[in-house]
Amino acid sequence: LARVQGLLSQLTSHDRVIFDELIGAEVAAMDGGAQKVTLRGPRGVRLRSSTVQILAMALHELATNAIKYGALGQPDGRLVISWSLVEAGDDGRPWLTIDWRESGVSIPPLDTRPDWKGQGRGLVERALPYQLGARTTFVIETGGVHCTISIQVSDTKA
Ligand SMILES: Nc1ncnc2c1ncn2[C@@H]1O[C@H](COP(=O)(O)OP(=O)(O)O)[C@@H](O)[C@H]1O
Ligand SMILES: [Mg+2]
User: Fold this and answer.
1) What number does the ligand 1 atom closest to the CA of 123 have?
2) Are the C-beta atoms of 134 and 149 separated by less than 8 Å?
3) Which pLDDT tens digit goes with each residue over 29-82?
């Protein structure tokens, strides 16, 4: 988190944050992340200033969960984070679709899992849609979490 906060605080305003730099900082801050995490997507996608902080928080919650319950805390766990840019429709701004897919995770049976409604899911499933107009999904599949986040991004290149 310190590194992510460092990246955010270096910027006097949040109007020059590039998605691959943000996700790169988050992954670098994960313990052992380098071996387990694959990043795949175009460079230079510029985030809207209004989205940076809450998106960074959501990614950090996903990473924390992956360490506590998921791919980054289990020996066979892997995490692929891929993203793509979807060109703008009539509303003018392109969308960034982020796909967070964990695998190799052994998931406890439904009836032994702790309470579902924590901060991580709350941020992804409620805060991002309400505050950013994002489209999100969060599913715990057999081999691990699969989460998608689509947000509108700046229409100017980095
Ligand atoms: N990456 C993950 N792998 C496996 N289970 C997960 C993962 N992320 C979340 N979960 C499950 O979903 C629950 C809710 O997560 P979250 O909303 O972040 O709340 P909290 O972390 O406070 O428990 C967790 O308690 C855990 O059971
Ligand atoms: Mg959590």
Assistant:
1) 17
2) yes
3) 886 556 899 999 999 999 998 899 999 999 999 999 999 999 999 999 999 999
How far apart are the CA of 143 and the centre of ligand 1, in A?
14
CB 84 within 8 A of CB 41: yes
CA angle, 149 as apex, 121 and 72 as ends, to 5°?
60
CB 138 within 8 A of CB 121: yes
What lies within 8 Å, CB to CB, of 146 at 6+ separation is 99, 100, 101, 102, 137, 138, 139
Does ligand 1 come within 6 angstroms of the Cβ of 130? no
Q: Which atom of ligand 1 is nearest to the CA of 66?
A: 1
Cα separation, 42 vs 38, whole angstroms: 13
Distance from Cα 158 to the centre of ligand 2, integer Å: 32
